[in-house]
Model the fold of this input.
Amino acid sequence: MKKPFLFLAVVSIALISCKKDTPVDETAPEVSIETQNSYDDQAAVEFLQTHYFNAKGKVEELKEGDTTNVKLANLNPITLPSGVVYVVRPGAQPNPGTTIGSSDIIRLMGVSTTYVATNESDKVKFRSPANFSNPIAISGMPEVDPSYFYVKKIVLEAGATDIQKQRSYYEIEGFKEGLMKFKSFDIPDETNYNLQGLIIVPSRAAFARDPHFNYTGISYRNRSFIFNVQVYKTTEAPDPR
Done:
């Protein structure tokens, strides 16, 4: 298995992990692309029906018989043509807020989890959860300029292969698309979080079945992502960067 040392030395400055390029595949037996896409969409619907925002905006699972909390499905979720779904949390948005640019330097708070949508016992839902990013629990401070939103040119130029020189190897396209539907606060990193909403990225709008950077040591093949986020600040970046 290749270990491009020069490449990893560079990306260690900008990225989360510098493990081997090929993660361990922990997904369920693979189905067709069409079936996986259908499972992803069905699982997103199921998730919206069974989860809600708590008082701080973190997503939690509804308990049976809960008639107090409002399920996400009743908060006007928007589905984009790519299959990305986003939910804007009422009363938790900046006013007026700052538009997020596609190459901005963002400061991102939240909890991000990746799942595989599977059909078990005739029930399709997100299963096999794995943590992707959790600055709330790890540091209590927002994540700065994550490469899965925008990867720097210095990282692309250091890629050891043609694939590693492509943005799609690092960036989660559907996450960027969904996040840009929100606006950013302009608050200090030390501010206590109050999450803005949710973005569900189906596998086809993430890494699908393509090679990708090894952020956390597992394969994201066929994996969808759920981002529960707040943008503390967005800054227009110098061009190029």
Remarks:
- The chain has one domain: 5-235.
- The helical segments are 5-14, 33-50, 135-138, 153-157, 173-179.
- The longest strand covers residues 105-120.
